[in-house]
TrEMBL record:
Start and end residues of each RecF/RecN/SMC N-terminal domain: 3-509
InterPro entries in alphabetical order: DNA_recomb/repair_RecN, P-loop_NTPase, RecF/RecN/SMC_N
Name of protein: DNA repair protein RecN
Gene3D superfamilies recorded: P-loop containing nucleotide triphosphate hydrolases
Amino acid sequence: MLTALSIKNYALIEDININLQPGFTTITGETGAGKSIMLGALGLLLGNRADYGAIRNSDKKCVIEGSFNISNYKLKDFFSAEDLDYESTTIIRREILASGKSRAFVNDTPVNLNALNALGAYLIDIHSQHETLSLGNIDYQFQVIDTIAKNEGVTIEYKQHLKEYRKLQKRAVDLKEEQAQAAKEYDYNLFLLNELQEAKLKPGMQEELEERYEELNNVEELTEQLSAALINVTQEEIGSLETLKEVRTNLAKISTFSANYGSMHERVQSVIIELDDIAEEIAGALEKVEANPEELEATNTKLQLIYNLQKKHAAGSIEELQEIQEELQKKVLASENAESDLSDLNKAIADKEAELKKVANKLHANRKKIIPPFILEAEETLASLGMPNARLKIDLEKQKTFLPNGQDQLSWYLAANKGGEFKEMKKAASGGELSRIMLAVKSILAAQSNLPTIIFDEIDTGVSGDIAQKMGEILQRMGNNMQVIAITHLPQIAGKGNSHFKIFKEDTAETTTTKIKPLETPDRVEELAMMLGGNNISESARAHAKELLSE
C-alpha cells in the first residue's frame, strides 16, 4: 500500500507531504483545486512520460516520492529479475530536472521507465474518469474475465504460441514464394551448374594452361633459341664452358701464390659447375620440345572455355567461378528439396496449431466457468446500487480462427430496465449506470486480485443521493481488503472514508498554490456540510454531515 507521498515543484504544488492509511481514504476539494494534479504526479511515479512544462519553478527540479509497504505482495522475484534491491518498505522517486531530463529511482537504484511501469502495475490501479468508458472495450472486457478466471499465465502461454505460430506461417508463405521463384530459375541454374561442373575447374588451372599454351604455340622459337644457347655453352671451339675451363687451368697454376688467386680459382670452379648444370637442363628442355598440334588445340579449347565462363559470370579467376558454382549448387539443391522442406514446415505448423488449440481450449474453459458466478455477483452489486432490474449477459463463442486473446469472441450486453432488451454495454448504459457497473466490476476484481492500492477518480459521476450512499458502502467494504482512495464530489461517499483529505488552493500576492491537508472530525463535519449546502453552512447541513459520519 501507499504509505506516504511527497510532491515538490510540480504544477501548482510547491511542496506537499502526506501520510496515508490502510482502508478507505477519501479526497475532496472544489473543482480545479488540484485533484487531477495529484493524479498526474502519481502517474509520473508509476512510469508515465514526464512533461517539462509541469515544473512549477524552472530553476529547481521537480521531485515526486512515494513510500510503499510491499511486504505482503510477493515481489521479491520481480525485484531480483530487474536487479533491484528489495525492501519491504520500498521508496520510488521520480525527478524532472530543469534541463527537461527525467530520472527514476527504486530504493535509490536508477531504473528506466519500462521497469518503473512494470513495478507500478503491481502497486496501484488508478481508475480515471475516462476509464469507465472502457467497459465497452473488448480488450478491457477480456481483461476483467481473465483476471477473475486467473488466466494470466495461460494468456502469456497462448500469446507466445501464437507468436511462434504466425512466424511459422510467414515462413511457409515466404518458402512458397521462394520455391515458385526457384522453380522458374531451376532449369537455367541447373544448366549453368552442369556447365561449370563439366569444366572440372581447379585452383591454378588457368595459369598452368596458359603456360603450356605458350610452349606449344612457340615450338620453333623454343627449338632455335635452346639450340643456340646449348652451342654457346658447350661447343669446344667457342663454348663458354670450354673457355671457363681454360681460365680455371690458368688460375690453378697461380692459386698458391696468394689467397686472392686461390679465391678466384674457387669461384671459377663454382661457375663451371653451375654452367655445366645449366647446359644439362637446356639439353633436356630441348629434347622435350616437339610440335603437338592436337595438344595445342585441346589446350586452347580449354582456355577459351575458362575465358567464356569468366565473361558469362563476370568472374576474374577460377576461384571466383568455383564460388559461383557452390552458390548454384545450393540453389539447385533447394529447388530439389523444396517439397521436403515445405512438408517439414507444414508439420511444424500443424504441431504448433495443436498446442495453440490446447491452450485456447483451456482459456475458453476457464472463462466459461467463471462467467455465471461473475454475472450473478455483478447483478447483486448493481441491485444494491439502485439497479435492481439490471441484467448482464456475456456471450462467449468459440471461433475457428486464432485471435489475440484466444479463440473466443466475447460480447457484454446489458438490459438496464425490467423487460428491456439486451444491448451492447456501451450503447445500453447511461453515464451514471456505467459508473455503477464499473464500480461493481472493480469491487469483484479487488476481491480476486492481489493489488495493494486502487484509486478512483470520481467513480461517482452521474449518481447522487441514496445511490451515492451505496457506492460509499461498497468502497468502504473494498477497503477491508486493500487500500482504496476515492476522489469524490459527493458527501455521501466522502463520509464513508476511514480517513479524509482536502485539496484546496491558496492564493498569495504573487502565486496560487495547491495544498492538501488531513481532516479530523470537526473539520470533516464542516467539509461535508459545505459539500451538502454550499459556503453558507446551516445547522441542518452540519447535522446531516454528522449523521453521514456516524453511519
